[in-house]
Design brief:
Blueprint lengths: L1 H17 L5 E8 L8 E7 L4 E8 L4 E7 L9 E7 H4 L1 E6 L4 E7 L11 E8 L4 E6 L10 E4 L7 E7 L5 E10 L3 E4 L8 E7 L4 E8 L4 E7 L9 E7 H4 L1 E6 L4 E7 L11 E8 L4 E6 L10 E4 L7 E7 L5 E9 L1 H24 L1
Length: 359
């Protein structure tokens, strides 16, 4: 028993060390009036993955938030920028580039209070529609956004998130960045895909993880070249299909089976959350799937060498068949960071085993 406890403790420490770069910041920081030059960086996101961000701020005017491509640059044309309460707190905008071209603007909406009043803000980016949206606490977060804009593609996928000001200080608190949408339900629709959750490339290895509640038929598709409801030019994974008696990897939606696993119940029921992991190894051109019945560090539940698709860009969709599937915590993982986490797990496990042998 004590060795199990030791293993758990070592794992927690190992994962913490492996994931040194925090994605959230709960303290407060003050951006001094610096004419829109950014020097307060609070995290990183990826323009190929949906994300949500929320924060609080105190300011007389000009709350600035930037998503800067490729590095921690003070100013950049290769960025998305949000200005809340600019121009004497009379106008808010979303721009392409810091102090760049306006994509949308809202006039007359006082988005900033004063230097003594803390206000709340939410920002979301939906990768499938390439849309950046902003809410302030004058409206309802679940209602219409204060402003939204379709964003132009930037030169690098990795975006550095920065907070700034213009001519007066802005105090930011409880800045939190969360990758991936929270949860969404896909109705049974005969595996016609209409919920797209991200993008990938068949030229680059990737990892994906998610949770799902379903009676049967958890479907995931990697569709080449666009957001098509069905396509022969795709890779498709079916988990717990055929009455939850079979899982398969197919070429094309409802296409040719590349591999199938019979008799393994990969889906629980609509009241049970199950975890899944998918990896694509571009060197081996291999798609692999794990469910939580096995050890993710062990052999996958199924794996197949997948055929080359006509286009490198893959649109990732989730779907269902004849009953609803609730998907949660869909995330595309950084390969290097994830490998570090796996290594930390193995090191912790090996250390615990070595201690047990010595005793």
């Amino acid at each position: 028993m004590k060795h199990s406890v030791l293993l758990v403790l070592l794992l927690v420490v190992g994962l913490a060390l492996a994931n040194e770069a925090p994605r959230r910041q709960d303290q407060c920081l003050t951006a001094n009036g610096n004419s829109g030059h950014y020097n307060n960086f609070v995290g990183q996101v990826n323009q190929q993955q949906s994300f949500k961000m929320k924060f609080k701020a105190k300011a007389s005017n000009d709350i600035h938030v930037a998503f800067i491509s490729g590095g921690e640059h003070r100013r950049s044309r290769d960025a998305w920028e949000i200005v809340l309460g600019g121009w004497g707190n009379s106008r808010s905008v979303i721009r392409h580039g810091t102090q760049g071209r306006e994509l949308t603007a809202v006039r007359g909406n006082v988005s900033v209070g004063d230097a003594n009043t803390m206000r709340k803000y939410w920002i979301t980016y939906d990768a499938p529609t390439e849309t950046l949206s902003v809410w302030d606490d004058q409206g309802e977060y679940n209602g219409p956004a204060l402003m939204s804009a379709k964003m132009p593609a930037l030169s690098r996928n990795d975006l550095h998130v920065a907070m700034g000001a213009w001519d007066t200080p802005v105090k930011f608190c409880n800045v939190k960045v969360r990758l991936g949408a929270a949860c969404y339900t896909v109705e049974g629709n005969g595996a016609n895909y209409n919920k797209f959750v991200g993008k990938a490339s068949q030229q680059e290895s990737f990892r994906m993880k998610f949770q799902a509640k379903a009676n049967n038929d958890v479907h995931i598709a990697f569709i080449a070249g666009g957001e098509h409801r069905r396509s022969r030019d795709a890779w498709e994974i079916v988990l717990g299909g055929w009455g939850n008696s079979k899982s398969a990897i197919r070429h094309g939606t409802q296409g040719r089976e590349l591999v199938a696993v019979h008799g393994r119940t990969s889906v629980g029921d609509r009241n049970t959350v199950r975890k899944y992991w998918i990896t694509y190894d571009s060197n081996r051109e291999t798609l692999s799937v794990w469910d939580d019945q096995g050890d993710w560090n062990g052999p996958p539940m199924m794996e197949a060498k997948v055929p080359t698709l006509s286009k490198d860009d893959l649109h990732v969709a989730v779907g269902a068949w004849d009953s609803p599937v609730k998907f949660c915590k869909v995330k595309f993982l950084d390969i290097e960071e994830d490998n570090a986490m796996i290594l930390a797990w193995h090191q912790a496990k090996q250390h615990a085993e070595d201690v047990e042998k010595q005793e």
